[in-house]
Amino acid sequence: MDFAFSEEQEMLRRSARDFLAKECSPKAVRKLMESTDTYDKALWQKLAGLGWTALGIPEQYGGVGTFLDLIVVLEEAGRALLPGPFFATMGLAVPALIEAGTEAQKKEVLGAVAQGSARATLAFTEPSGRWDAGSVTLTAKPSAGGWQLDGVKLFVPDADAADYMVVAARTRGEGEDGISLFLVKGRPHGMTVTSLKTLDMTRRWSEVRFDGVKLEGGSLMGDAHKAWPALKRALDWATAALCAEMVGGTQKVLETSTEYAKSRQQFGKPIGIYQAVSHKLADMLVLSESGRSATYYAAWAVDADAPDRSLAASMAKAYVSDAYRKVAGDGIQVHGGIGFTWEHDMHLYFKRAKSSEVTLGDANYHRELVAQSLDL
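The structure corresponding to this sequence follows.
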């Protein structure tokens, strides 16, 4: 098995890095952080023009490339802390639509996303903050040939900018039984989106309330009550995609910290020659490279639909969640006092690391899934 990226994918990586260095500088990121939302229409159109919004989408719906191509771009997006709904759309909503959407829904939404004319997100978590099937309590009941949604979704990523929202709801039973997915277009009556003030303002999160929201019958994705297997597969895609973003951020922190250790001097010598710093950087490198290996294998396993795809995704998320947080924290330590200041970018990566750590389940959650796979 060859897990190396192709020459074309490495070219894509270089072009993505060059583009983001120009269009998504730290100054641009901070500007979007201070705005009411992080969606920049002009930037989104540039991403679409590069074909990024079509990556991983099947060709019959206007897509190009593979999931591994998307992984390459997401890793570079993580390096640059790309704000806005790119991950929510490509890493969360698109996999859910591919796995569970009807043919009509795929043609409408995936085609619009690929063209760059629409953005989407996934509404899964509720006040419990958990990512398992049992945490879904928002109800959907049959109503006049359609469905009525009642309940609340919390920490929905980039909901403000979403034209479509895939909503996980309970239509009967408990646990994995009775979960259904619905495609919500726009802002129907009874649906309210409230932005939340969170630690990582490079990615916006919202509370979405459904108070008697009426949906047409065609909003149901797949068969009623039986959406969990497809949703679980979509979460495998999403987990591998998020890990790629996190690996990109980890690498950027390592590079920035290493350069600082070479240039910052104490007692007439670079601080990097002292073991307290050099060994910390060595540990950061080990964490970064190990996380990259786990992520690349998870991405391959998901793309190839390997039997261990879910296990590989959970192993990667368990490791990378801890690694990104540790590397980002150590990066601040290497920088010393300057790393704690608002003027330095290091704290932005630490906040993104903490945010990504709990998204799609933290390390403990995924370790439990790994343990279950061992019949423990």
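Residues 53 and 240 are 17 Å apart (CA to CA).
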